[in-house]
Amino acid sequence: MAITRINIGPVHPSTHGVARLVVDLDGDTIVNVEPHIGYLHRGVEKLVENRMYMQSPPYMEKIDYVAPMAVDELYVATVEKALNVEVSEKAAYARIILLELQRIASHLFFIGSVTNDLGQSFTGFMWGFMDRDKILKLLENATGQRMFYVNMRLGGINREFPQDFEYQTKEFLDYLEKRLKDYENFIEKNPIFIQRMKGIGVLNIDDAINLGVTGHVLRASGVKYDVRKNNTYYKYSELNFHTKILSDGDNLSRFRIRMMEIRESIRLIRDSFYKIQKADGSMIGMPVKLFSPKPTNKISIVNRELPRGEGLMYMVADDKKPYRLSIRAPTFINLAALNKIAKGHKLADLFSIFGTLDMVMADVDR
Amino acid sequence: MDEQEKVLNARQEMDQLVVDSLKGRKIKPNVVFAKLSDLSKVMSKGVVHWSRVNSVWPLQFGLACCAMELMDFGSARIDAERKGFLLFRATPRQADVMLVAGWVTKSMIPEVKRLYEQMSKPRYVIAFGECATCGGPWWESYNIVKGIDQVLPVDVYVVGCPPRPENLFSAVMKLQKKIGGDVEY
Hints:
The complex is a heterodimer of chains A (366) and B (185).
Chain A (H helix, E strand, L loop, with lengths): L3 E5 L11 E7 L2 E8 L7 H5 L8 H5 L6 H16 L5 H29 L4 H22 L8 E2 L2 E2 L7 H24 L2 H7 L7 H7 L4 H5 L6 H4 L20 H26 L22 E8 L2 E9 L4 E7 L1 H5 L2 H6 L7 H7 L4 H5 L1
Antiparallel strand pairs in A: 1-2, 2-3, 4-5, 6-7, 7-8
Chain B lengths: L1 H22 L12 H19 L11 H9 L22 E5 L7 H10 L5 E5 L1 H5 L21 E3 L6 H16 L5
């Protein structure tokens, strides 16, 4: 059979940024997918080398713009490890609350974009964005910015929560729990949705481990790995939550894992609001100064469970600035699975597979 | 008495100046007598103009972070459609406005140019966000174009990192004023 080669992107409605895919087709069946990346490359790792430690968080936030606070926190945690700064108990809980809120926002965006990728199912998009907007409002109330918060400081956060933050957040969580049932009825139990998603893009457990994918992609394939549990940080060990896994490894299970994770995050936030009352220490970290304390650890490696998978930063410290910062972007490695799982499926399924891998191309290119 | 006279004289002079200035000009009458065919030509011109202002179709072209706010702009809370800013078009041939949302890398310039050239005239560009207006935080980077105005003619700039969706809404209304001829440029 003759093989047709077509080019998708870099500008395409459902490439989640600027991805270019070169697809080899046999009729309508995918033979090979080759992602071309680098259309958003801006050299964050190089720029950071010329900035002092606490000047870099704004750059870090733009790495993964769907969940900016998570990457910001990862970077600040790396600096904290290099400078040997301890995070107080109260600040740890405060960070958990903010990070889990950010995780829910990111997952709601995922729901919106996946339903949109399936062919302009616009209700899902509208719903996802409507609820995400409510979280952005809460975070804006707590941090002062709408999208890029720059809220993490060494040893804590920038400012205390406003007085009505706890009440508003709890009210929102009650609303979201009711809302998730709607999502379930409308999307997860929708026969058309299930037909489009079930058995598409199957990644089996061996391939998932060999490719090094993390996050929801790995958990959907049946590996119980979550950095929050396996290499626990802050107070996650004292909070009550489960690592959810499914065994199918297809599009539907990747979607369902996300829905389960939202519920776990709701539990985590409620739990930490309860425990933050008895926690000691101050929530506020060190203000940003021109002269920060000198780093004591030459090399520091920190990993975190970002909404999109495991993020890791490796920093070689210098006197005032990082000598070298290397970032393991979760989506860059998850993208490697695309060729493996898209083979043998129809062209129309390519973007549902691409969507459920949850790509952020700025994260891939850095 | 002298001052009153002065004032009266000044008024007369002003009136005379106005009358002189109007002498060479044609003043539009309120009532038009014309052939029906001529009238329909004039009317159709107006209709085209009016509809151009009130149905601005943007190109679906998200680059980076600002595209998130762009999506928010198109979603339920802001509801851009009430001002004729319709659904985002996936093909440049149906679009009037290009919203450059995000930083433009050097490898992206040919693509952006090509998209702009594929759009049908009259076409407009909104530079959305700091990166598109001047390079923003990436001004030192080796791979970023410092402002999309080095490549395309920009009509409206929106500042902010990222600008709020409401901010984009005001920019769109400004563009509509510009298309309507209310703003001189």
